[in-house]
Design goal:
- It is a single chain.
- By secondary structure, this protein is an alpha/beta fold.
- It contains 14 helices and 15 strands.
- The two termini are 13 Å apart.
């Protein structure tokens, strides 16, 4: 068996576009390049790309560029010479991280040369389809397109068991493998004095509870519930700071809503931050991560917070809450502003409980990208063996 594999990592998003999947493929590439094998990122062209700063190869294919706050390119993988370019790279396996343009590209490639394909299903695409696609025929086409790309993979991976519900809604009836994501932030132990110094550096008050939301600024992440809950806390006379870390399509509307609720003096709006150490510093100074999203299939930010021993408040039954025990490795609530507020009122001033639960999260739910990618890489060999047996290769 070939030990070192050449792996094509397909993604419709890669820096300068930043989102959860972009973060995932960067970490796959980084870990594979550290002695496991040879990674190549396969992604649409972006006019702002700076690929020379990465220590692995990035292959860009034709795209349509639509200027937007989030900076996404739309892949256009329909030229035959593109397919031959991938074939000539002699990949051992192709791994797509979204059932979109790049997955379709891989379908076209394997029509010409047999290469095993893995697809990781990261996000609940039906949310975006139902929200953004205006007509039923267009929605039916989108569902059909995604399903065909998923069915074309030799093996489908999910990052949480809850993701399977989304796959079934799209019509996928096949098998799947659970392959969790990791965290690229190291586990840190920080003293109380160091936390005080960090708060001074970040201009955060010392003696009030600090909550943090980290992620894309999009309403369907249940950000409105966070803000409504915080408004209730303020009406009840409670002091707190809320760090809003990230950017996204709805950030201007979110800022207006913060003003409407009279919360602006309670909010620290960081804007877009790329530096991972700086992001971790915001977790370190926070008491609780507020992440009531029922959209996310894994919630990388929950593990990021755990790296800093910061526990998360999550919606009971959500994918992000998988593996979380209420009051032990995190805190669980119902999907409502009232439930978030009442939970915070119970726990926000209990520093000992927050510290204990944060420590448990760090020891029990944190997983490094090194361990996560090693597990995935070992599975690549099984996928290749099964593919060879199936195709008599």
């Amino acid at each position: 068996m070939k030990d070192k594999l050449k792996v094509g990592l397909g993604s419709d998003a890669f820096p300068p576009t930043t989102d959860g999947i972009s973060n995932v493929v960067q970490n796959y590439a980084h870990q594979i390049s550290r002695g496991l094998g040879e990674p190549v990122i396969i992604t649409p062209k972006n006019p702002n790309q700076q690929d020379c700063k990465y220590d692995y190869e990035i292959f860009r294919y034709k795209s349509w560029w639509i200027p937007s706050k989030e900076g996404y390119s739309i892949g256009w993988p329909f030229k035959d010479e593109l397919h031959q370019a991938i074939i000539n790279m002699n990949f051992d396996i192709l791994h797509s991280h979204a059932p979109l343009a790049t997955s379709y590209y891989f379908r076209r490639v394997v029509e010409k040369k047999k290469i095993p394909v893995v697809l990781t299903y990261h996000t609940k695409y039906e949310y975006d389809i139902d929200r953004r696609v205006p007509t039923k025929p267009a929605k039916d086409f989108a569902y059909h397109f995604l399903l065909n790309n998923i069915n074309a993979a030799d093996e489908v991976w999910v990052t949480s068991n809850g993701t399977v519900d989304s796959l079934r809604k799209l019509g996928y009836e096949g098998d799947y493998i659970l392959m969790p994501n990791g965290c690229d932030m190291p586990v840190v132990a920080v003293s109380e004095n160091e936390i005080k110094e960090l708060k001074q550096k970040l201009n955060i008050a010392q003696n009030v509870p600090v909550f943090i939301y980290s992620g894309r600024m999009i309403w369907y992440k249940n950000i409105r519930l966070i803000l409504d809950a915080c408004a209730k806390l303020k009406r009840d006379g409670r002091e707190f700071k809320l760090i809003m870390l990230g950017f996204g399509a709805d950030e201007n509307a979110i800022k207006r809503y913060i003003n409407k609720l009279g919360l602006w003096n309670n909010v620290i709006w960081t804007g877009k931050i790329i530096d991972r150490r700086t992001i971790q510093e915001y977790y370190i100074v926070s008491d609780i991560l507020l992440f009531p999203s029922v959209f996310d299939t894994n919630g990388l930010v929950v593990r990021e917070a755990a790296s800093a021993a910061t526990p998360s408040l999550l919606v009971r039954g959500s994918c992000a809450a998988e593996g979380i025990t209420d009051g032990e490795t995190g805190f669980l609530c119902m999907e409502s502003a009232h439930s978030i507020a009442s939970t915070l009122e119970k726990i926000a001033d209990n520093k000992e409980l927050i510290k204990k639960v944060g420590g448990n999260a760090q020891s029990d739910i944190y997983i490094s990208w090194e361990d996560a990618v090693k597990k995935a890489y070992d599975r690549y060999h099984i996928v290749i063996d099964n593919f060879n047996i199936k195709n008599n290769l």
